[in-house]
Write a structure and sequence with these properties.
Shape of chain A: globular
Largest sheet of chain A: 8 strands, mixed
Order of helices and strands of chain A: HEHEEHEHEHEEHEEEEHEEEEHEEEHHH
CATH topology of the largest domain in chain C: FAD/NAD(P)-binding domain
Oligomer: heterotrimer
Number of strands of chain C: 51
Shape of chain C: elongated
Structural class of chain A: alpha/beta
Number of domains of chain C: 6
Structural class of chain C: alpha+beta
Number of helices of chain C: 24
Chains: A alpha/beta (417), B mainly beta (91), C alpha+beta (1001)
Radius of gyration of chain A: 21 Å
Helix content of chain A: 25-40%
Strand content of chain C: 25-35%
Radius of gyration of chain C: 38 Å
Distance between the termini of chain A: 38 Å
CATH superfamily of the largest domain in chain C: FAD/NAD(P)-binding domain
């Protein structure tokens, strides 16, 4: 058992000038063979390894990461967590995750700073109103907390929004999920890494996958920059690079990897105490505990792995921010960055077996994967361990693109992720 | 933001263009004769290459013509642009 | 009265122009040319702010945009307030008010200072290890964390200023107007290259502008005198545009750069009025020359953060440029010769230099020798082990460094001083270079990262490329410019440059103290209070990647983005983990270089310009008649026309009745209209719509449904055959642009063999739709020449006609189920034709109705609205519109997808009608529908898509999509609302005039 984190351990260690803290996780070198290799050391991959070890009694597990853990979309997203999805399958998946979030700091003994400050989605035209009401009713019947707010209630909950009826995109109403909120993204990767490491999972950084070795219809192992690793089960959780790994195994996925950008302002004292999303004008904003406004921009329309997007996307997002929050005009952008998001045609993820035995994919989270991290890890671990999906991720199979049984969060609800 | 050399208009800012995804996926001439799998392959499955990719672009805020582009998706370097209907270059 | 530290008049400061300003409520004076920082220093004010985490007193450290500490709130409680502005960048003006941030009640006595006392319990990442118990308390802890974090305060009022954008295209962009930038720009412009030179400061010249050392001479003049002549000569170059106060924020691929030009921040209020405050330059440069200079490094030692501790170059600039002494007893601490230059310049101005502490063993450069000759004490091989003075430095303790530089030995010496200038060497400003995709290499000798491979047409020149001495800068610049700009010669080749040279080097990233590191506070990131021991703790805990260390310790994540301390952080990581700095790499340099105002990025795209409204030709009439408007896509559409204080419900009920009882008129101009011509037009329509088109007779109209290739309904509308090879297609209002794009795509890429031409004519026509039993009579008054009998002008046909001299196309089509005519005229006649219809309809009480009534009337008839009754998951079969899907056609867009296993399921959601058991209850659109109430989880079958109270049926009606709904006619279902359950019965979706008699009434 690692030394437990608490205020008492902090005080105790203060007397030894913090020189006796143990490693949160150790840098492993690959063994010859593992029962399962997880490709991708982001939040989802680390969580998968953690739950494989914790709930499925597997011990010989490796996570291989091309760079540093949590360095992909885990460390680049705007950390919004919510579960107020329209379709039953999505609601089930995301609310499963939200329930785990609610106890995650204690479970991991690592403060992931899950803060249930509420997420509000705004409606700007009559169809938005219909869509948001439809979603609120569906959420309520699915046991997910969600309320519809009229314009005055929106204003009351977040007074800095410009709710004047005379603006270009007036606020006609909104939905609020109070259990929703934000978390500290890096801490999620680090907390899962620490938990997995404690149960014997090998976390191998700077280890890039170069090939997948197959024997007929089964996998035999992976070629990496740190040598060949034998394994019968490979769980790929490579986000923007999923297609690259799939191509190594001779598979094609219904994905396109596109640039997604985000930015933060300079830190200021608390000014917005919730998360507000507006899909119609594309403005998502919250404020970090450090005081920075955290603003999610949109995706570009072309495939790119450059982790750079175009300026017009950032400009468009800030146009929208100033439409809804004119008081932020004199605030300043401190940093902007880009990630690579893997997008499915129906804007829902894939958590699925493939035609190749022992090869599993967890991908397609598009712009909204962070919120699902714990649930995704738990369900993917189940899928790998049992070689069949859990009922909560059964709908998110690859075959839906053949049968037509899509989980269309994209077309259906005009819901931003 | 790229500069794209539209084959009809010349060099223009990327803002004037729309990307149209992977190129040279021809719409099947006889869709009804395809299996569900084959149809899904056409509809949804994409190479999504990291590296040199062939793709379609449209000069949406210009001449509105579609054309093909060869682009390295790892660094966004445009290698070649050619008109619709022209044969893709061989490596 | 504060003491005056203005020691010498400076040519850059206009002492005839005295300016008063307030800092923390107190009035001070400075001069035109001062920054807030120089003016405060002139008033002996060093304590300016409090740090982020420990609330330690902090002063002014630098003289530029790299300042981590002296950041202030400007004009608090006004509409022009701004947080986190660097005092070193604020040019003072009459009436400026600035105040310290992140302190309460004030900067001299700050309660938050208690954090400094408990700092042993707050190491890097402490918050990940605690605040977890009890779990429900996190949000309470977080409340305090949030309120003690943050720096300044967000503005709370609307910004009164305006911002602007400008597109700039140039042959050469030169970034930075120090000596390298000036020479580069001058020679580019002289060679007929359209050149733009930008600099973030308000003066050209960089640090050479005040370089008067006797050892640096260009053509036997002091380098500053020589440079001033060069700057003079820039004025005559017609190819050159020069912009000061212009900071390049971002350098993107394809030489696309963003620069912020600051236009009014330095002006007093009355001069700012109605002027553009900041302008964003969007620059496309064929070639870019980066001459961004270098930033001086601090030194990392115990308590290196007190007010009075500054960069050596800043101490020099305040003296040379602003004529301000930063103290009365100044000590320099250095690892190179530049501190000696600063010390000499101060000494020559009569400012007392107490001592120089140099970690090197010696140096024999002329500068050092000359300083030694002045009698100033130099402590070779010494380091500072501690500093003292809470709100202002009052002394430093030094000790001798061991040979390996790892420890200190001997006796501690205290040196009394009120200002310390640190000179830790120079870091080339490679930020923009790396933003552009450039890769760096590490120069082990000079411990600097330098540009190695250029990703676009650009070069770095001067100190940002690692050249620090003026003679080599000029020599290399000459060679590089000729090559890069492809010019034969420069106007400064072979000029005579003399300068002193430095030989001895010693670099120690973390200087030792006599105390163990755990007991010290050697700050690496001043603003975020990250210390060297935090970095070591992170490494100890297994955070080995530099990105991990950065994130765990927050090093380099302040508003200065680590411009001062990032190199030391890397050095300390490399030393501690025993890896080479070159292998370690750097963290990503993220744009912008300095923070960029949101308003500047947005420019004029505010208010209505955020997204332009489209308005129909009849819009003024709607406004005159008090219409309420609905935003549909980009359009403003009349929603309803309340009269005499009617509510929306009352207005809609009245309008709906009028349309069915006598006559109504709707502005339908917003519908998308695509003109289709060419010999293959019929075949084209066959392929894009689900139904067949070849047999449509000229002069007839047909409704069409368009699918996506995935089989889902995408758009609908009526298309009219105007001629053998000529059609006009209408689309939904919101879908027009996408439909055109999709059709063009198929035509150009899949079916180039088809002879078809598409033209968007949405804006070219205005459409008035007259409906109701009396519409024929009204039409007869307007177009008396047209024979309106059902035989001559039947439903779903069209006629060309003239209203006076105005040509029009009249389609007899109906979205309301009533006898109805759509009159299309050239847009400019729209309003007059509309008014003619109203005039002609007066005797029939013609009633203008808006979109809401239109929606109600079509719902009575069970007509769908794409986007309201469909959501991208509905096939035509789901909509019970099988009749429109041709079985005979070999193919059309989306056909194949209708035959997949899921799309063929019988129990998909299908469009049905719903009637409430209590006819007065109007269902909520979006409400969910169930068949069993006592389930857990409850199974939702579908939802209400459209719902209205029908005045014509005197009961509520609704359309809904329900799983397996088409077989449920008459079945009882339930709508579980939040506080009640509504009972409903499934009905036919056509509620009114099921026999379609009224269309020919």
């Amino acid at each position: 058992m690692k030394n437990k984190y608490s205020v008492f351990s902090l005080i105790k260690n203060a007397f030894s000038y913090h020189e006796n803290w143990e490693k949160a996780w150790k840098d492993a070198t690959p063994k010859k063979e593992y029962d399962v290799v997880i490709v991708g050391g982001g939040g989802h991959g680390l969580a998968t390894a953690y739950y494989l070890a914790k709930k499925h009694n597997m011990k010989n597990i490796a996570v291989v990461e091309k760079g540093w853990i949590g360095g992909g979309n885990t460390g680049r997203n705007t950390t919004i967590i919510r579960s107020n999805y329209l379709w039953d399958a999505s609601a089930g998946l995301y609310d499963h995750a939200l329930k785990i979030w609610e106890g995650l700091s204690q479970e991991l003994n690592y403060n992931v700073m899950f803060s249930q400050r509420g997420v509000m989605n705004l409606a700007h035209n009559l169809q938005d109103v219909r869509d948001l009401k439809r979603r609120t009713h569906a959420n309520r019947l699915n046991g997910i907390d969600a309320v519809y707010l009229n314009t005055d209630e929106v204003k009351k909950f977040c007074p800095i929004i410009n709710t004047s009826p005379d603006i270009r995109y007036p606020v006609l109403g909104g939905t609020l999920q109070r259990r929703a909120g934000t978390a500290r993204h890096d801490a999620v990767a680090w907390g899962y890494a620490r938990g997995a490491d404690e149960m014997g999972v090998d976390i191998i950084q700077n280890c890039e996958v170069k090939g997948i070795k197959r024997n007929g219809d089964s996998v035999e192992g992976i070629e990496t920059t740190k040598g060949f690793i034998k394994t019968k089960k490979i769980g790929v959780v490579a986000a923007g690079h999923s297609s690259v790994i799939a191509n190594m195994a001779g598979l094609r996925l219904p994905l396109e990897s596109k640039p997604l950008q985000a930015l933060v302002s300079e830190p200021v004292k608390p000014i917005i105490d919730t998360v507000v999303m507006s899909n119609a004008v594309h403005a998502y904003v919250s404020q970090s505990d450090k005081g920075e406004l955290v603003i999610g921009a949109g995706t570009d329309d072309y495939v790119s792995y450059s982790q750079k997007g175009s300026h017009q996307i950032v400009e468009g997002t800030l146009n929208a921010i100033l439409e809804l929050y004119p008081i932020f005009s004199r605030m300043r952008m401190l940093r902007q960055w880009g990630g690579i998001v893997d997008i499915c045609p129906d804007a829902s993820p894939i958590l699925s077996k493939t035609a190749i035995k022992g090869l599993y994919f967890n991908c397609g989270w598009g712009t909204g994967g962070f919120k699902a991290t714990p649930g995704s890890g738990d369900l993917f671990a189940h899928t790998i361990a049992n070689d069949e999906p859990h009922k909560l991720n059964a709908a998110f199979n690859l075959n839906r693109f053949v049968s037509g049984d899509l989980v269309d969060e994209h077309g259906a609800a005009a819901v931003a992720h | 933001m790229f500069i794209i050399n539209c084959p009809y208009c010349g060099e223009r800012d990327q803002q004037e263009f729309k990307a149209g995804g992977e190129a040279h996926i021809e719409r099947p001439k006889q869709p009804t004769e395809l299996s569900d799998d084959e149809w899904a392959e056409y509809l949804f499955m994409r190479k999504n290459i990291k590296g040199v990719q062939f793709e379609r672009w449209n000069h949406a805020h210009g001449c509105r013509k579609w054309f093909n582009m060869v682009r390295d998706t790892s660094n966004d370097e445009i290698k070649l642009i050619y008109k619709m209907g022209e044969k893709p270059p061989v490596e | 009265m504060p003491e005056n530290f203005r020691v010498k008049s400076s040519e850059f400061i206009d002492e005839t122009n005295r300016i008063s300003f307030k800092f923390n409520g107190k009035t001070y004076y400075g001069f035109r040319g001062d920054t807030l920082a120089s003016a405060l220093l002139a008033n002996n004010v060093h304590l300016v702010g409090r740090s982020f985490k420990y609330h330690r007193p902090r002063g002014i450290m630098t003289s530029g945009s790299e300042e981590p500490n002296a950041i202030v709130q400007v004009n608090e409680n006004t509409d022009t307030t701004e947080p986190n502005v660097r005092a070193t960048e604020i040019e003072i003006y009459e009436g400026l008010e600035a105040s310290s941030q992140n302190c309460w009640p004030n900067v001299n006595f700050d309660i938050g200072g208690i954090n400094n006392l408990i700092s042993p319990f707050l190491p890097a990442g402490f918050y990940y290890k605690t605040f977890m118990w009890p779990s429900s308390f996190w949000e309470k802890y977080e409340y305090f964390i949030r309120h003690s974090a943050g720096l300044g305060k967000s503005p709370k009022k609307k910004d009164p200023d305006i911002y602007d954008h400008r597109y700039v295209h140039c042959d050469v962009l030169v970034v930075g107007a120090g000596i390298s930038g000036i020479l580069a720009a001058k020679n580019a412009a002289k060679n007929n290259l359209k050149t733009l030179l930008v600099d973030e400061k308000n003066e050209l010249g960089g640090s050479t502008l005040f370089q008067n050392e006797e050892f640096n001479k260009i053509e036997n003049q002091s380098s500053s005198e020589w440079l001033k002549k060069q700057i003079q000569e820039l004025k005559d170059l017609k190819n050159l545009e020069v912009k000061v106060r212009t900071s390049v924020a971002a350098y993107h691929g394809y030489n696309y750069l963003l620069a912020r030009e600051n236009l009014t921040d330095h002006l007093e209020k009355k001069d700012k009025q109605n002027k553009v405050r900041q302008r964003l330059l969007k620059i496309r440069a064929k070639k870019v020359i980066l001459a961004t200079g270098a930033l001086e490094r601090p030194l990392i030692f115990n308590n290196n953060d007190r007010p009075g501790i500054m960069l050596s170059s800043a101490v020099k600039k305040y003296a040379d440029f602003y004529g301000v002494a930063c103290g009365k007893k100044i000590v320099f601490f250095t690892n190179n010769d530049s501190a000696y230059e600063s010390a000499l310049c101060l000494h020559n101005k009569g400012i007392k230099v107490e001592a120089i502490i140099d970690i090197r063993e010696n140096s024999d450069s002329k500068t050092v020798k000359s300083l030694e000759a002045s009698g100033i004490k130099i402590h070779w091989s010494h380091t500072i082990v501690d500093t003292h003075g809470y709100k202002r430095l009052n002394n430093v303790s030094i000790m001798k460094l061991s040979k390996d530089g790892m420890t200190v030995t001997g006796k501690k010496i205290k040196i009394s001083c009120d200002c310390l200038g640190m000179a830790g060497g120079w870091t080339p400003a490679v930020h923009l270079f790396t933003q552009s995709g450039g890769k760096l290499r590490f120069d082990e000798d000079n411990k600097v990262f330098l540009p190695s491979k250029y990703p676009s047409k650009q070069i770095s020149v001067g100190s940002c490329s690692g050249d620090f001495k003026i003679n080599s800068i000029i020599k290399n610049l000459d060679l590089n410019l000729k090559d890069f700009l492809e010019i034969k010669k420069t106007d400064f080749e072979n000029i005579d440059v003399k300068c002193d040279s430095e030989k001895s080097k010693r670099n120690i990233w973390l200087l030792p103290s006599d105390k163990s590191i755990g007991k010290t506070k050697p700050f690496v990131d001043y603003q975020n209070d990250a210390t060297a021991k935090d970095i070591k703790l992170a490494l100890r805990e297994g955070f080995r990647s530099i990105e991990h260390v950065k994130r765990y310790t927050t090093t380099g994540m302040g508003t200065d983005q680590g411009k001062l301390g990032n190199m030391h952080a890397l050095g300390i990581i490399a030393d501690t983990a025993d890896v080479k700095m070159g292998e370690l790499g750097t963290t990503t340099f993220r744009p912008p270089y300095t923070p960029l105002t949101f308003g500047t990025i947005v420019g004029r795209n505010v208010g209505e310009f955020f997204d332009i409204f489209r308005r129909t030709p009849m819009n003024d009439w709607h406004i005159e008649h008090k219409a309420e408007f609905e935003n549909v896509g980009q359009w403003k559409r009349a929603w309803y026309y309340p009269v005499n204080g009617e509510t929306m419900h009352e207005a809609v009920q009245r309008e709906s009745k009028a349309a069915r009882e006598s006559a109504g008129i709707l502005d339908a101009s917003t519908l998308g209209k695509i003109d289709i011509q060419g010999s293959d037009s019929s075949e084209f329509l066959n392929r894009v719509y689900t139904n067949a088109w070849s047999k449509l007779a000229i002069g007839n109209c047909r409704y069409g449904l368009m699918l996506n290739e995935d089989g889902m309904v995408y758009d609908d509308g009526v298309t009219t055959r105007l001629g053998e090879n000529h059609y006009i297609m209408t689309t939904t209002t919101g879908g027009a642009a996408n439909v055109l794009g999709k059709l063009e795509d198929y035509l150009q890429t899949e079916w180039p063999e088809l002879d078809v031409y598409l033209t968007s004519v949405t804006d070219h026509y205005a459409t008035a739709s007259v409906c109701g039993p009396n519409s024929k009579k009204i039409l007869n008054k307007i177009v008396p020449d047209i024979e309106l009998s059902d035989e001559n002008f039947p439903h779903m046909s069209f006629k060309e006609a003239k209203i006076g001299n105005i040509n029009c196309r009249i389609m007899r089509i109906s979205f309301t189920g009533e006898l109805s005519y759509e009159i299309n005229v050239q847009a400019s006649y729209g309003k007059s034709v509309w008014e003619k219809c109203i005039e002609a309809g007066k005797e029939f009480n013609i009633t203008p109705y808006g979109t809401e009534t239109m929606h109600l009337l079509r719902a009575e008839k069970g007509f769908i609205i794409v986007g309201q009754d469909t959501d991208g998951t509905m096939t035509p079969v789901d909509l019970q519109m099988d009749w429109i899907v041709s079985k005979k056609k070999y193919d059309f867009i989306g056909k194949r997808s209708l035959y997949r296993s899921d799309t063929m399921r019988e129990d998909r959601k299908q469009l049905i009608g719903l009637l409430t058991d209590d006819p007065s209850i109007v269902l909520e659109e979006g409400a969910q529908i169930v068949s069993e109430l006592n389930q857990n989880p409850i199974q939702m079958l579908g939802h209400v898509t459209s719902s209205y109270f029908s005045p014509n049926l005197n009961k509520s009606i609704a359309l809904a999509v329900v799983k397996g709904g088409k077989d449920m006619l008459g079945k009882k279902l339930y709508i579980p609302m939040e506080n009640k359950t509504i009972n409903v019965t499934v009905s036919n979706p056509v509620f009114f005039d099921k026999e379609n008699l009224r269309i020919n009434a």
